[in-house]
């Protein structure tokens, strides 16, 4: 009986604590539409595209960076004059510097860069470990890690001036590593980099805040079966004849079918679940350090990250 009472007390305590946290974090800052600008990378499709449109509807001034002219034009066609678009390749330092200079020209004298959302990312799943090559890791890290680092370091002076927000889109794959190829590795690194920035900020007394977004599987182009099949097939086709005997083509198809089935069974179609928490991280008076988003992130990946390694090894798909 005492055990049940203790369990009941703990449950009630957790519920009350979460309710108090919700009420504390609910209020937004003032004047989010007046003199505050938000810079978002990776706005061609997916979360970045959705976020730019969402903030535009709210009346927020947005500077949306796209990789392609098509992405830029498509976004211009469906947004108001509050959204200014520019071209940015986060793997090219000169492109980052050009974006920085262009942004400074866009923002009026009495306004400020309030938020930087590092959203640009790619997935280059290359199958099993022996199917991968060094360049697979380099390609993903160039966008998902070094792009985040470069944009952050370049735009940091403006965030320090505004005491604004740095929001880095990582992944629940930054909590639990399932497969090689660079994606999980890059997201673990984004988590570590974000933690380092947040702690150094506190050390020097800077007032800007740092938040990490950890989506689970979502129905974006990044997680599509076509994207998965294309990248894994390209990796398998590079194998030598000897390796293809060890890993026959049937294994390639099994891998694609198995992983795409897993993703589709877990994937959430409502992208606003992610953009809503990014909005909160940008404008809440008391944003969270980490936002786990999606039922699989909250019920599977984050809980699994606290388990002993031997349990993770058994549970990981």
TrEMBL record:
GO MF annotations, alphabetized: oxidoreductase activity
InterPro entries in UniProt: NAD(P)-bd_dom_sf (IPR036291), SDR_fam (IPR002347)
Biological processes annotated in GO: steroid metabolic process
Leader sequence segment: none
Alphabetized Gene3D superfamilies for the sequence: NAD(P)-binding Rossmann-like Domain
Family label: Belongs to the short-chain dehydrogenases/reductases (SDR) family.
Protein name: Uncharacterized protein
Organism: Strongylocentrotus purpuratus
């Amino acid at each position: 009986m005492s055990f049940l009472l203790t369990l009941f007390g703990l449950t009630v305590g957790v519920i009350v604590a979460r309710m108090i946290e919700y009420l504390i974090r609910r209020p937004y800052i003032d004047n989010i539409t007046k003199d505050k600008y938000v810079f978002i990378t990776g706005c061609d499709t997916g979360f970045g595209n959705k976020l730019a449109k969402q903030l535009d509807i709210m009346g927020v001034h947005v500077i949306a960076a796209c990789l392609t002219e098509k992405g830029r034009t498509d976004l211009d066609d469906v947004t108001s004059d509050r959204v200014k678009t520019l071209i940015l390749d986060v793997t090219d330092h000169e492109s980052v510097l050009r974006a920085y200079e262009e942004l400074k020209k866009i923002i009026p004298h009495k306004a400020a860069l309030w938020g930087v959302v590092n959203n640009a990312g790619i997935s280059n799943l290359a199958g099993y470990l022996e199917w991968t090559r060094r360049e697979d890791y380099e390609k993903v890290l160039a966008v998902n890690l070094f792009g985040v680092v470069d944009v952050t370091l370049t735009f940091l002076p403006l965030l320090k001036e505004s005491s604004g927000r740095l929001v880095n889109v990582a992944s629940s794959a930054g909590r639990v590593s399932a497969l090689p190829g660079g994606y999980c590795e890059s997201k673990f690194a984004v988590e570590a980099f974000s933690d380092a920035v947040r702690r150094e900020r506190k050390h020097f007394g800077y007032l800007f805040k740092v938040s990490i977004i950890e989506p689970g599987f979502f129905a974006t182009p990044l997680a599509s079966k076509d994207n998965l099949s294309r990248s894994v097939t390209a990796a398998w086709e590079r194998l030598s004849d000897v390796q293809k005997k060890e890993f026959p083509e049937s294994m390639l198809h099994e891998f694609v079918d198995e992983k795409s089935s897993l993703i589709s069974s877990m994937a959430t179609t409502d992208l606003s679940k992610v953009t809503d928490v990014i909005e909160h991280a940008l404008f809440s008076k008391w944003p969270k350090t980490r936002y786990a988003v999606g039922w699989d992130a909250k019920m599977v990946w984050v809980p699994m990250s606290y388990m002993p390694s031997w349990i993770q090894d058994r549970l990981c798909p």
